[in-house]
DNA sequence: TCTGGGGTCCTAGGACCC
DNA sequence: TCTGGGGTCCTAGGACCC
């Protein structure tokens, strides 16, 4: 049974949204950056790309390439709102929609074809509605599976519409560089190159046994990728697996060494993680501290708690215990806190009465904080530090409610 | 003014148990 | 008595994605 899968990718999403909301930015080279000083280019407008300004570049590098580049700080709320508008449009054409990030989605339109006449017509309708309503453009890829639909949407940007027919697949893949495939990154490309594999055609013909030896379970998948075979279904938000980790990390404005300074930031991070975990209705038994040193080397240490936790205090003290066991010989550049081994509400054991009361207090504090920002209100023992945590949104971020957090 | 932040999945090695 | 082997859980790190 042949499926018809559509992949839709918003072009230069953050930058385009900014240009749309501020006409003064239109037709100018624009880049969206994180909120902190030490940041990178998150997205650049097509005008900026002409100068070579790309995602991941440092500000210094970007300004070298394009001195008149206009920088805009990421505006999470705005992108959230626009993203949800877009996803709503998608859902008018099929219930089988998978949100893969804030600006990307897969649609299985196999069942909608007869109603609309053709898949090109669905693509046309989606594109024109997004353009009319939000002033944004996107690239659409259409193919028999997700792997190829994603590849197709990348082939023509901006404002592309690319269809890959079943009979075209072998010729298309024969000389396609392996790195073009989603899932084959820099390291895997290098490893495959060392085996003499450069094109998807070569990959698809390579010995599965040898690839398995080199790559483990990925070996089989690699060969299938080379052949353009992919049976993964489009997974709608309701069918999606529950979240497995909740974490926050921040690159500090300046490297720090003092334990009390480190603790201050850990408190902020613990609060952010705790608040999100509570909003998701999850608690976790594993707490991880992530540290990046000034030389950029990064390590993590985790500790299992006797009971699942999600209060900011519990997370903070857990992460402090880990910190106490560390010998830091270098200044710290980045700190991160992660909660994993999650238990979802509903599956959780009944809380003792006292714990429940404590939780209710935490929830009411969260309600105030949700309205006024982090650290407006905190319970007594944590009142020593004030300041807002940074909230850089990433393209991997997804609208609230779109991620399955296991709440009925 | 060198190098963000949110995740998922996989692996290798060790502890521990039967 | 000279050393099996499977299973599970845990830790730390790395690849990859957007």
What does the model show?
By secondary structure, the chain is of the alpha+beta class. The chain has three domains: 1-164, Reverse transcriptase/Diguanylate cyclase domain (Alpha-Beta Plaits), CATH 3.30.70; 169-226, 5' to 3' exonuclease, C-terminal subdomain (DNA polymerase, domain 1, Orthogonal Bundle); 243-384, DNA polymerase, Y-family, little finger domain (Dna Ligase, domain 1, 2-Layer Sandwich). It has helices spanning 13-21, 46-49, 59-65, 76-91, 113-116, 119-134, 146-155, 169-174, 186-194, 200-205, 208-215, 218-227, 259-280, 312-324, 353-372; strands spanning 5-10, 30-33, 41-44, 70-73, 97-101, 104-108, 138-143, 161-163, 245-256, 282-293, 298-309, 332-344. Strands 5-6-1-7-8 form a five-stranded mixed sheet. Strand 2 (30-33) and strand 3 (41-44) form a beta hairpin. Helix 13 (259-280) packs antiparallel against helix 14. Mean pLDDT is 89; it is low at 347-354 and 373-408. The structure holds a DNA duplex (18 and 18 nucleotides).
- The number of E-state strands comes to 12
- CATH class group of the largest domain: Alpha Beta
Structural class: alpha+beta
Strand content: 15-25%
Mean of residue pLDDT values: 89
Structure annotation, total helices: 15
Strand order, main sheet: write it out: 5-6-1-7-8
The portion of residues assigned to helices is: 25-40%
- Separation, N- and C-terminal Cα atoms: 33 Å
Question: Can you tell me the number of structural domains?
Answer: 3
């Amino acid at each position: 049974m042949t499926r018809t899968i559509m992949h839709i990718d918003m072009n230069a999403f953050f930058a385009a949204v900014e240009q749309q909301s501020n006409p003064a930015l239109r037709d100018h080279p624009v880049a969206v950056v994180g909120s902190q000083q030490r940041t990178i280019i998150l997205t650049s407008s097509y005008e900026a790309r002409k100068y070579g300004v790309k995602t991941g570049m440092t500000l210094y590098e970007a300004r070298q390439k394009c001195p008149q580049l206009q920088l805009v700080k990421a505006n999470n709320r705005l992108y959230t709102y626009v993203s949800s508008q877009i996803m709503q449009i998608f859902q008018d054409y099929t219930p089988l929609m998978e949100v893969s990030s804030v600006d990307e989605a897969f649609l299985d339109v196999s069942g909608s074809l007869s109603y609309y006449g053709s898949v090109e017509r669905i693509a046309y309708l989606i594109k024109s509605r997004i353009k009319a309503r939000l002033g944004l453009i996107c690239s659409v890829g259409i193919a028999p599976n997700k792997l190829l639909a994603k590849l197709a949407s990348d082939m023509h940007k901006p404002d592309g519409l690319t269809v890959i027919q079943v009979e075209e697949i072998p010729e298309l893949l024969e000389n396609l560089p392996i790195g073009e495939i989603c899932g084959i990154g820099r390291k895997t490309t290098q490893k495959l190159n060392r085996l003499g594999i450069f094109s998807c055609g070569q990959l698809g013909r390579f010995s599965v046994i040898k690839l398995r030896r080199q790559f483990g379970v990925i070996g089989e998948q690699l060969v299938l990728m080379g052949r353009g075979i992919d049976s993964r279904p489009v997974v709608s938000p309701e069918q999606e697996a529950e979240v497995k980790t909740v974490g926050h990390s921040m690159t500090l404005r300046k490297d720090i060494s003092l334990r009390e300074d480190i603790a201050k930031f850990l408190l902020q991070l613990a609060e952010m993680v705790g608040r999100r975990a509570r909003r998701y209705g999850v608690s976790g038994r594993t707490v991880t501290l992530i540290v990046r040193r000034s030389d950029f080397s990064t390590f993590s240490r985790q500790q299992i708690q006797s009971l699942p936790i999600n209060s900011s205090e519990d997370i903070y003290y857990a992460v402090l215990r880990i910190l106490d066991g560390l010998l830091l010989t270098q200044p710290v550049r980045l700190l991160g806190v992660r909660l994993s081994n999650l238990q979802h509400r509903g599956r959780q054991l009944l809380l003792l009465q006292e714990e429940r009361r404590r939780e209710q207090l935490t929830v009411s504090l969260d309600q105030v904080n949700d309205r006024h920002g982090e650290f407006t209100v905190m319970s007594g023992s944590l009142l020593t530090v004030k300041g807002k945590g940074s909230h850089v949104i990433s393209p991997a971020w997804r609208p609230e409610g779109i991620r399955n957090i296991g709440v009925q």
